[in-house]
Amino acid sequence: MASNDVADFEALLAQADTETNRIAQRIVDLEASIVPGMTQADVDRVKAGFQAEVDKLKGVGVVPPTP
Fold first, then answer.
1. In this structure, is residue 53 part of a structural domain?
2. Across residues 7-20, what is the average pLDDT?
3. I need a surface site. Which of 24, 46, 53, 65 has the fewest CB within 10 A?
4. Tell me: the pLDDT tens digits for 37-61?
5. What DSSP designation does 63 have?
């Protein structure tokens, strides 16, 4: 394997780590926003945020069919 291939793999891994960390941080932030006394609007907003992150993760987990 050529050194430029290794560099390409490392760059892709760094990008995957960045995106994974971004989603994880968004989930942590949403979890931290759950507090006593939330209004229904707050609850709906947090639930929608969680659902958006779940939907992203479901998309990641899909293995495309092989041709």
1. yes
2. 93
3. 65
4. 999 999 999 999 999 999 988 888 7
5. P
